[in-house]
Amino acid sequence: MKIHVIRPGDTLYRLAMAYKVPLARLLEDNQLPDPNRLVVGQAIVIRYPKTTCTVRPGDTLDSIAQASGLSVRALLRNNPGSSFHEGQTLVLTYEDEPTQPLSVLGYAYPWIDPALLARTLPFVTELSPFTYRFDAQGNLIPLEDSGLRQAAAGFGTSTLFHLSNLGNEGEGFDRELAHGLFADPAAQQKLFAQVAQTAQEGGYQGVDIDFENLYPADAPAYARFVEDLRNAVEPLPVLVALAPKASEAEASSFAQGHDYHLLGRAADYVLLMAYDWGNSASPPMAVAPLNQVRRVLQYALENIPAEKIYLGIPNYGYDWTLPYQPGRAARSLSNQEAVALAAERYAAIRFDQTAQTPWFRYMDLQGQEHEVWFEDPRSVRGKIELALEHGLHGVGYWNLDRPFPQNWVVLNALGKIE
User: Is 203 left (phi over 0), alpha (psi -120 to 50) or beta?
Assistant: First the structure.
């Protein structure tokens, strides 16, 4: 795999000629918002097919996969966005086939676009629908995620039961709700029983716990809660989300209630939420600067075995109005939207070498300056390679609800998706 950064005068046709790959391959792999409007600084992914086949009359995905010795999932991963029509050339293998296994966890809301979900699921090992909640008495609040579970099953993707301490709609993660649950053994037992029953009836293959913004003093109680829930849903594996911190001294309010050592022992796996340095309330900066991600991962590895860790990767960026003013929220946008915005406003994309993240500035129609930070093939490559370098269990994406086709091509080139 190669990543080309667009220079003045570049076109996809010229890139296809220069790299000796079919133009159709570039179009299919990158699925650009506007292939005729490239942006200086934009990243293009290039892969080299090794073996291919042509779709013949009567061929199906199953028959092609069987004849080529591939799974249908692998065939779909190697041909993202394909319509599989007669006469089409399909990639069976690439010259740079990865060998290192990697699990891929993805989060999605129940209202995700079904077509987007179908294109993404072949790349996802486990899908975690967001989210079941609970009340102060330990009663589980239902989540209508049957559509997600059915779609996942159709692509051979496992589903995880996701439980969080989100309060009522719009209230965010509720530390008082969690604190009350930790202090009420009867409420915990009621919740454990309902989680175990719902997980069994819904065919979930694991439980994903995401309690955030906890009181620092509740850290030991939270670890006991995770361990007790793990025992209640056995033999299902339990994963717990960890807010990022590189030390206890610099832990944010969202991370102070997470004891990495205790939670790493209590759960089968952890998701390291290594993102949100740049967020809707922060000054303009990278959402997941690689230098900071490395520090957080190092701290996690001092407390948790590598084979238990998923490294979290953000699938979004932010658009800040300048000059930055505290209290004025940045606008969240997809990575594809960011590139389209740069093209629309004739802004060159830059790349911060320390954060290993793309960004640009532009002027809106009212003459107001903006700054945008987002993810592209270069930034996700750095994070995926970091996970592989340390032998982590996998990577986890928050979230799948926005398209980012280039990410999946990069992921498929670097890791052998389980």
Answer: left
